[in-house]
Amino acid sequence: MFRKLFAKKAARKVELVDGPSFEVGRNETVLEAALKAGIAYPHDCTVGTCGSCRSRLLQGKVDAITPFGYTLSREELLAGYILACQAVPESDLVIEVPLESGVVRAVPARIVEQRQLTHDIRCVTWEADGAIDYRAGQYMNVTWPGAPGPRSYSFSTAPAEGGRTRLSAFIRRVPGGAFTDALFAGAMDEQSFTIEAPHGTFWLREGTGPIVLIGGGSGLSPLMSVLEHAVDKGVQRDAILLFGGRTERDLYCQAEIAEIGANWKGRFDFRPVLSEEQAPQHRFGMVTGEIPVALSELGDPAATQAYLCGPPGMIDAGIAALTAAGVPLTSIFYDKFTDASTAAR
Ligand SMILES: Cc1cc2nc3c(=O)[nH]c(=O)nc-3n(C[C@H](O)[C@H](O)[C@H](O)COP(=O)(O)OP(=O)(O)OC[C@H]3O[C@@H](n4cnc5c(N)ncnc54)[C@H](O)[C@@H]3O)c2cc1C
Ligand code: FES
User: Where is the domain boundary, 45, 76, 96?
Assistant: First the structure.
C-alpha cells in the first residue's frame, strides 16, 4: 500500500481532438502543461472561476483541485466537461477543446474616447501602438502599472482586415472595482496601459442553422462585434437577440441593433427583457425565461447555436433553459464576465 501511495506518478499523455498532444508532469494541471508546451489553450483566471478553460473529457480520468461544479453547470458536468486549470490527470486523456486563434501581442495603449451608454456602462476606446488582429467575439487583457491583475474586456466592434489599433469595449462600472471605479471617476484618463490580445474562443461557429444570442449588461459588447461581423460577411441565418436589463435605463445600442436588423440576411429579432420594470413595449421577467419562446420560433432547437455573454448567473440559467429545450451543449458558446468577487467565492 505504501509503495502505491508514494510511487512517483508517471507523466500522462493528453491528446487534443483538434490539436497537438502533450505530456502532463506529476501534479501539473492540464492547462499548465498545455501552456508550457506552447499550445493556445483557452484560459483566463487560472483559478477555476471564469470557465474559459472549459473542455470536454472524452477519455480518461482527472482529479479536480477545486470542484468543477463551482463554475460549470450541472448539464456541463453530466456531459463530461472539466476545467483544464483545475484538472490533474489520473490517466492518459483525450480532450476536446477549441484552441484560441490569432497571434497574441502585447502593445502599449492609452484611452482616447469614452462614451456613456447607460447610467453604468461606457464604450471605452483605447488607441494602441500596434494593430491587434482579433476575431469577432474575442477579448483583450488590459493592465496598467500597479494593476492588481489583468482585466478582460470583449471587443465591441467587428474586426478589420490587418487588425485594429482603436480597440473598443463596453465596460460596466462594478462598485468597489479596482479598475472600473477609477475609470468612471476619471482617474484612468492619463494612464498608460498594456493591451494583450486576442484571447478567447467566443466567435460565431460555421453553420446554416438559426442562432440565438443572449446578453446581459455589458455582455452586449462581444455580441455587437459578432453581429456586425456577420452582417459584413453576409451571413444568412435566422437570429434572435435577447437582451436582459433591470429597467429601461439599462437599454442601449438600440439604433445600432436596428441597423444590424435592417442589413441582416434572414430573420432578425431583437427582444429586450426587463426584470424590474413593466414597460408596454418590452417583455417583463428574466431574459433566460424568453429562451423557450425564441427557440420555438426559430424552429429547430437541435440545429440552433446559442451565444451567451454577461453575468455568470445568467449564463448558468441560460444553459439550463437551452439544454432543456433541446439545444445540444456542444452548440452553446459563452463568456462569463467574472470579476474579483467571483474568484473570492
Ligand atoms: C472573458 C471575460 C470578458 C469580459 N469582458 C467584459 C466586458 O466586455 N465588459 C465588462 O464590463 N466586463 C467584462 N469582463 C469583466 C471584467 O474583466 C472585470 O472583471 C470587471 O470590469 C471588474 O473589474 P474591476 O477591476 O473594476 O473590479 P474588481 O477589482 O475585479 O472587483 C469586482 C468586485 O469584487 C469585489 N472584490 C474585490 N476583491 C474582492 C475580494 N477579495 N473578495 C470579495 N470581493 C472582492 C469588489 O469590491 C467589486 O465589487 C469580462 C470578464 C471576462 C472573464
Ligand atoms: S482559466 Fe480555468 S476557470 Fe478560468
Answer: 96
